[in-house]
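Q: Could you fold this chain for me?
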Amino acid sequence: MKAGRAVPARGFLAAVFSFSSLCLVLAAPARADVTVGVAVPRSGPYVAVGEQVLRGVEAAARDANAMGGLDGQTVVLDVQDDVCDSNSATAVANHFINSGVRLVVGHVCSNASIAASDLYAANGIVMITAASVAAKLTDRGLPTIFRVCGRDDDQARLSAAVLAERFRDRKIALLQDQTASARLLAAATKDNLNRIGINEALFISFQPAEKDDEALVDRLKAAGIEVAYYGGDAAEMGRLVKIAADRGYRPQWFGTSAIATPDFAKIAGPASNGVLMTFYLDPSRQPAAAGVVKTFKGQGVDPTGSTVYGYAAMQALVAAGNFAHSTEPRPIAQALHTERFDLVLGTVGFDSKGDVTAQGYVLYVWKDGTFTPAGK
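A: Sure. Below is the predicted structure, expressed as structure tokens.
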């Protein structure tokens, strides 16, 4: 990584793509089209996160095209639904390969990204994810695989540290469903918590279903659980929190980045107030994203959650391509690995594994339908 040098996301006078600055920039005419594949869940339990990522990607592509495109070529998007499923993700990857797509933003769920990334790497395709947190994704060192979000091992370390600091003398339950992401987060949090010298009261694996959810809540209540940690999706977490509140049971609920969507608060209702959550540093509150956030809000769009990360993923591809003066994956990957760029995340680069150098996870608390930093 070259220190002390930042390459602006190309756009003449603009350091960061911004809707509000488009009228001030005379765009160079684009010469042709370059297709960027976008793989997100447009159905299934993680559709809300998929829509956030897609919204950000589409906005960044529009901004890029208004300022000359990717190395002078107009960015067009090929959007595919991977349902957050490994087999579907593999099918989507093969679709991109057969269609000649060389740059991909996606996938959202880690199992989908891991399954597809082997195909992308084997075919020299650059993939950059806005939401897949599994350490395995980048720990393999595939040279064309990147992410702009955090890693689950970092998230688990923060979760364990918060549990130890705030709830050392409370009865803690760690919950996991049958999804890969929830299992990994629960196991990693347990491992980190146990290393600190704290043992959970319960470690429960369950299958989300209405009757099972009620039975799970009753089990937690009967065991006197005071803190319940769960790494599952927003809909399931919302149901559990609401069921517990309806039964007059209000433990301290603790979620992860999977609930960073307004859907969680809509499902949980007023019981969502006070729920803790680990999530990446929210760039929508950072100066580098101010212009983009202002435009989103002006359109009636809430840019929290993974929206700005979707924007950053596309923005990074365009910035690297403009630096390399190429739409080809190899020079773009090299630029991502060796340069630093001014993005909505701030001035960042990517390490040898493909992990972004931006700040990691932060503790948030839900209140009145939104989440804010929890502080000390």
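A (continued): The two ends are 33 Å apart (CA to CA).
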